Amino acid sequence: MDGILSGKKALVTGASSGIGRGTALALAAAGAQVALVARRAARLDELAAKIKADGGQALARAADVTDEGDATRAVQDAVDHFGGLDILVNAAGMTQVGKVENANLTDWRYVFELNFWSGLYTSRAAIPALKAGGGDIVNVSSTAGRRPVGATFGPYAASKFALTAFTESLRAEVTLAGIRVCIIEPGATATEIHTHINDERVRETTRQHLEKDGAMQPEDVAAAIVFVVGLPRRVNVSQLMIRPTVDARVI
Asked: Which of 156, 179, 194, 216 is catalytic?
């Protein structure tokens, strides 16, 4: 499949749904070979089949990226299969609610494990391969990574703030090695992320917010990612916030 990313090798975490799935499809449509990483193997197989039917190349790799060893092996498998790696998109993520007083620490820890630690694991593993030819790391954050969404979404906002700081620190670390690093901060996007929320009332309110008229779609965020990694190597878009046109608020 020819396109602006022809010959590039990419890995996308969270590829079984939402922004991750949309990004994998967009990268493949732009000509990249794509490693699909997530826990739900059946969904990855379906996506890989779709990409191949459309003339692209894909590798489905079921993995739990909150596990350091599994995340590292997933990256290495992609490098071995494709013979290198040019693009890493960390799109795996979830949201959960909870206040600090009487906090469910298990919930808080898992949000950080998926939204923050998994990106550290995969980035650390990918850096040697990305250095070989100059590559890209794109971390998918949220507008909540700039301003917490009230008191309820503390775990999510805190994890995304951490991801923002990590991303900028990483950019400063690897830029002279020819690796570009970008954080994408989407506003309301219609995905399954609300399904993880334990509080039924908040889950339904969040679903309505994400699926409202004018909310962005995963392919919109994916288009922004393809734009970023498709720019000339002399350009590094280090931070990009994208929001629904109809929503004037930060979120």
From this structure: 156
